[in-house]
Target: NADPH-dependent oxidoreductase
Amino acid sequence: MNETIKNQLDHRTIREFKNEKIDDSIIESLLDVANMSPSSNGMQLFSIIKITDQNLKEELAKNGLQEYMARAPYLWIFIVDLFRNYNIAKENYQENDEMIGFDKFIQGFTDSIIAAQNVSIAAESLGLGVNYFGNIHNNTKHIIELLDLPKLTYPAVGLGFGLANQKPQLKPRMDINLKTFENYYQVFDNYNEKISAYDKEMTTYYDLRDANRRVDSFSKQIPVKQGSLIANRNKMFETLIDQGFIVK
Model:
């Protein structure tokens, strides 16, 4: 097994970082990795906002309801960016509505996530810790205002990274056999039975956000996390339309 795979199998979400600067050459390398990431049709429909203003970090953390976001020494927001290519086409009198449709939005969202994941893998291979921030979707309209995003852009995911200042417990995962099928989707007769061992394993895991408390079993987390709505997230689609994307 090579070192890259070892790092991936040892992935942990890092929420506390050392207050140390990373060499500029490493940052440039991570940006090069993002830039060379696979892209749908080669259209490169993403951009990165590097957050260096501490006041802005604190506003993002407040929006995301995760105070440790403000302590990430390096915080990048990956955004769907159809604005750039649309304006290139417009300058050549070749713009059309297909360029800003929902299909292209999905391409841009996919490009953004792939780029973020490539940066994450590269950062961990260099001994850095990383943390994804999906909390930017708690109020996407506010994020758009904070980052001064133009029409035809949309926040996809945040990525914090730096030198780790903690070693959290490795979070258990569901058996891969429940997520892997051949040729067609397999439906099981009893899912609780299938995850019974995983449920027990999860109750031995300590989440460092509440270091003195074990987490609930996975089956109990589902209605709490997947079955509830964070305030303002029901407005994400509305914000998408406000940003000028054409949804038919």
About this structure: The domain at 3-168+233-243 is CATH 3.40.109.10 (NADH Oxidase). The chain has a mean pLDDT of 93. Residues 57 and 129 are 18 Å apart (CA to CA).
